[in-house]
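User: Could you check the structure of this?
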Amino acid sequence: MGDVIDIGILRTTVMEIGQWVKADLYNGRIVRIANSFVFKEPVFNYSADFHFLWDEITVPVKYGSDHQRAREILLAIANEQVGDYVPHARKDWDLMVKKFMIEKASVEPMVTMIANDNWIEFTVRYVVDFKRRRSTKDRLFTKILDAFEKTGGTVSLASATFHLVEAPTLTVNLTDDKKMRLNTPE
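Assistant: Sure, the predicted structure tokens are below.
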């Protein structure tokens, strides 16, 4: 996976992305691929007709938090950080709909919620320039953390915690003859 930097008669040269480097960042390795490869394997192109990708982040929120306020914060931050992409993505997608006869899709940021065993999980879905996924996630999470802190605890991030439901009572009695006796409920 990478950006094409040269196309020759026999091979295409790519500046590789990923592998040991997270997200869509260059790792410094240049890869030469035989052009016949195109006929043997699928080729994914991030920049052909639709210059954007849908991306998502998940945000775990503690039970007991104001979930409506959390949703409002997340949607406002998403609109603030990626809202400028929406008109351009909508234009590109409309062309895709005409060209490939596919259905219309929403390119506006959206927030969905599920409740699981541990927390309320919000998913923020948005379109982003395919070269700015990582920096956009960084900005989103930074703004979200700052905004949650400003709520004074009414909205809190969740983390994995363990709650002991029930443990037996343990009583230790020392007798006069210094022997220990343990009493536990039956």
